[in-house]
Amino acid sequence: MTPVAVLVGAPGAGKSTAGKRLATALGVAFADSDHLVEDEAGLSVSDIFVTQGEPAFRALEESVIQRALAEHDGVLALGGGAIMNANTRDRLKGVPVIWLDVDLGQAAKRVGMNQARPLLLGDIRANMNRLMKERTPIYQEVSTIVINTNGLKVREVVDEIVKQLDTGVTHA
Fold it and tell me: Which residues pair with 5 in a beta bridge?
């Protein structure tokens, strides 16, 4: 059993929002790796970062994603940095991975002053820019479908994903 679709992308790309609607459109369950981590730890992502540090969060994230990729047969949204783990990237092979590509301005606007994103605290735009530059080549590497979400409504993003999943079209 594997997910019907895994969504990746920068913070603010719309993975959770589009993922929930995509799951509904496909008639399957939705899971978000950050929420799975929080359920497992009994702490918010922010609290894990503060009390245990990023390495502890990443280890738990990898474990939760490994399990979700083996057991979840719906739509799975991954945290923005999950794909930086080589083991996670290896496990994504053979799974439909949709990269919700978004430009810096749109992502920063969507994220705003969200305190639940510990890697973006401080200068949000500069931190987002750094993360996007670091992660973009990896998103490209793991994705089988690319959706540029700039200027699209959630419904349009979901419709495009469904169309591409149905037709097997990649990199639109």
Answer: 75
| Contact criterion met (CB below 8 Å) for 52 and 8 | no
Quick one: CA torsion of 143, 11, 33, 30, rounded to 10 degrees? Answer: -80
Q: What CATH code is carried by the domain that includes residue 111?
A: 3.40.50.300
Total domains in the chain come to: 1
Considering the domain boundaries, does residue 43 fall inside one? Answer: no
Largest CA distance in the chain: 45
Q: Look at residue 46 and tell me if it is in a domain.
A: no
User: Which range marks the domain in which residue 88 is found?
Assistant: 5-31+73-167
Among 62, 55, 54, CA closest to 117: 54
pLDDT tens string 67-102: 999 999 999 999 988 999 999 999 999 999 999 998
The CB-side HSE value for 33 (13 A sphere, CA atoms) comes to: 28
pTM for this prediction: 0.86
